[in-house]
Design brief:
The protein has about 220 residues and is mainly β. It is built from one helix and seven strands. The strands form three sheets. Strands 2-3-4 form a three-stranded antiparallel β-sheet, with no helix packed on it. Strands 1-7 form a two-stranded antiparallel ribbon. Strands 5-6 form a two-stranded antiparallel ribbon.
């Protein structure tokens, strides 16, 4: 690596060709970028489509739906990109030895605490991409350590085809340390449906320059 490289965890500047951060011990190069996971089975596609149908029913009829009551009558279902297997990646999490605490600003001006536990790497349009993975936590304890990985992100579709503030991924940890990063499951935060909700903004480090044409589209213009 060239001199001037920064640690993705603590931000410390690194020497040329450094593999681990001198300050926090985190991996600099990490695992090679993952390639698409391959074809989806008919069962996998059917399960994904069924989940989307169930979400539509929840949003239209459930008392806890984030869609305001006065507009639910016009709701005809969410819009999605077509299911695309090329946006599914089997990634290994590059874990930080000393995870850093970060604060994310929310849509209502509040701040929330997260633990930046590592990052995943994958390839879109022939270019290596990196996204940081977080867990909800508090500064003085590690509540949330058992929760799913939380990956908020923006990409080149944000504000155009997709919700401008962010989309989210929640990824289950596997015992073999491999994670299925499936952008077909990327979803909008509740603040996309109503300003009554407070949703964290993705840090700049999770802004992708490429277009991720998978998952949920805009709820409305």
């Amino acid at each position: 690596m060239d001199s001037g490289t920064y640690c993705p965890n603590c931000g410390e500047i690194q020497q040329a060709k450094a593999k681990y951060c001198d300050r926090c011990g985190s991996p600099i190069e990490g695992e090679p970028p993952s390639k698409p996971a391959g074809k989806m089975t008919e069962q996998e596609i059917e399960m994904l489509l069924q989940t989307r149908k169930e979400k539509d029913l929840f949003l239209k009829h459930h008392p806890q739906s984030p869609i305001p009551q006065d507009v639910r009558g016009q709701f005809k279902g969410l819009n999605y990109f077509p299911v695309n297997p090329s946006y599914r990646f089997l990634c290994r999490l590059n874990r930080y030895r000393k995870p850093a605490f970060v604060r994310m600003m929310t849509s209502t001006g509040e701040e929330r605490n997260y633990l930046k536990v590592g990052y995943v790497r994958f390839t879109i349009e022939g270019e290596a991409q990196t996204l940081q993975a977080y867990k909800a936590t508090h500064e003085h304890n590690h509540k949330g350590e058992r929760e799913n990985l939380f990956i908020p992100f923006k990409d080149a579709t944000s504000g155009k085809e997709t919700y401008g503030t962010a989309r989210y991924l929640e990824i289950e940890e596997a015992e073999d340390c491999v994670f299925l990063v499936d952008f077909n499951k990327a979803y909008n935060p509740y603040c996309a449906y109503s300003e009554a909700y407070s949703c964290p903004f993705p840090p700049v480090e999770n802004w992708l320059e490429v277009a991720v044409k998978a998952g949920e589209k805009k709820f409305k213009d």
